[in-house]
Amino acid sequence: MNKTRLLRDVGQSLWLDNITRELLDNGGLRKYIDEFSITGLTSNPTIFDEAIGNGDAYDAGIRAKSKDGKSDEALFIELALEDLRRAADLFRPVFDATDGVDGWVSMEVSPLLAADTHGSIDAAAKIHRQAGRPNLFVKIPGTPEGIPAIEESIFNGVPINVTLLFSAQQYTAAAEAYLRGIERRIAAGRTPDVASVASLFVSRWDKAVGENVPPELRNRLGIAIGQRTYVAYRKLLASERWTKLAGAGARPQRLLWASTGTKDPKASDTLYVEAFAAPDTIDTIPEKTLKAFGDHGEVHGVMAADGADAEAMLARFARAGVNVDALATQLQVDGAKAFVKSWQELLGRIADKSAALIAEDVN
User: Fold this and answer.
1) Of the residues 65, 139, 288, 341, which is catalytic?
2) Phi-psi category of 280—alpha, beta or left, where left has phi over 0 and alpha has psi -120 to 50?
3) Of 105, 124, 126, nearest in space to 113 by CA
4) Model confidence over 253-287: pLDDT tens digits?
5) For this structure, is 337 an active site residue?
6) Mean pLDDT score of the chain, rounded to an integer?
7) What is the rounded CA–CA span in Å between residue 45 and residue 283?
8) Which of 36, 154, 320, 336 pairs with 182 at a CA distance of 20 to 30 A?
């Protein structure tokens, strides 16, 4: 039996942390759906930069769109949405069967807008319209400037994947923005049925502290942060505030585990996937990690709603000199900068390819 079914059996959705045109063309995504229980996927600028740069699958599209006068961000968004529409259509049966709980794909607003609230609101609405698929999330980072953009986008009826969350505090801010958006919709007489997920990044915690902590603490910080956040998630779903919204027809903003590939070669390649087996959550898994778990992954029960030893573990990190709150802020800032870098490299790569392809045609 493919071990990924163990995660499905505990009530967790598995989404692929990747998309490429080649994966669509060669049936790879279809195989992951059929054989690995994949029911959605996520994308980001780094994924598209690597996909466009590592081959010629996008050359025809770049050539055609360049001839039509498209360039830079507009050209890229069209390329990306072509892929994401195809993926969304593959997941549409799951989306319909689960009444919109599962079967989603995600497209990021420009990382250059991470500190631009109004720009993010406008970009999210535009991508949502342009995509033309009900099962496409627009990703907005949960930065301080992104929080009001998330609330307004939810109020506007745009499904949002809140990205770049690194702590329970950041998650709670994103969750409350979602709740406020839904509450405003109800007050305005609109349907509260707008979907959202909140993406907590995991493995970057352990990469950040690396070997600056005692050996017995290595590769344990990300899990402790995740456990603490899961406690906040379960408490929110049990709250009177949420119960009232659910009674009005709202759907929960699901917690999503992101960055679940193991970065330490000395650690288990299924470390985070096994640790974050939990009902009513989503795990976005890189291809390499997905195959590893499918081969030899195990599920040793589900995450504890009370956080188990998370707080005791975080206290040990504090004694080791790790300021978790400061590091969470820094990881979010660094994550936003990394996406900006990938975005700029991506647009530069597209511009170079466009010029080279047009030159080929001229010659």
Assistant:
1) 139
2) left
3) 124
4) 999 999 999 999 999 999 999 999 999 999 999 99
5) no
6) 95
7) 19
8) 336
